[in-house]
Amino acid sequence: MAKVTISSVIDAPVEEVWARIRDFNGLPGWHPRMVESHIEDGKDAASIGCVRNFKLVSGATLREKLLDFSDANFLVSYSILETPQPLTNHKATLQLRRVTDGNRTYAEWSASFDAAPEDADKLAEGMGANVFQGGFNALKSHFAGKN
Q: How many distinct structural domains can be found in the chain?
């Protein structure tokens, strides 16, 4: 099983960062790689088991299922149901924590998945750099100068 974890510190209070990212259907509003999204079957975006169907800037479509969601813990976990990438058994968690020194946010995004040995490292690297770090960079840019 391949694993990847990316972390960052965002110069904004955890409540503000969470307000920006908490909508499971809201990726296009804050992540530069996501261009459109909808929740299937008319379900609420915070209901465990709902499925988001979204498109990347590359044109690829993914489907992800919400596994865990907590406003109290600033946490969202999901699994990829469909992706053009050669991976299976995917689970990811994005969690925010309060940094009291400067009223900042510690953000950690991690995933585990199965892939062929020859693909695993490249997939983990792409997921970490392009998806996870790309999202954190967009959040840091959004909050820069606001506090």
A: 1
Segments forming the whole domain that contains residue 120: 2-144
What pTM did the predictor assign?
0.93
How buried is residue 135: exposed, middle or buried, by Cβ count under 10 Å (0-12/13-18/19+)? buried
pLDDT digits (tens, 9 = 90+) for 64-101: 999 999 999 999 999 999 999 999 999 999 999 999 99
Helix ranges (H only) for 1-147 are 14-21, 27-30, 117-126, 134-143
Specify the CATH number for the domain of residue 11: 3.30.530.20
35-68 per-position pLDDT tens digit: 999 999 999 999 999 999 999 999 999 999 999 9
CA gap 79, 69 in Å, rounded: 12
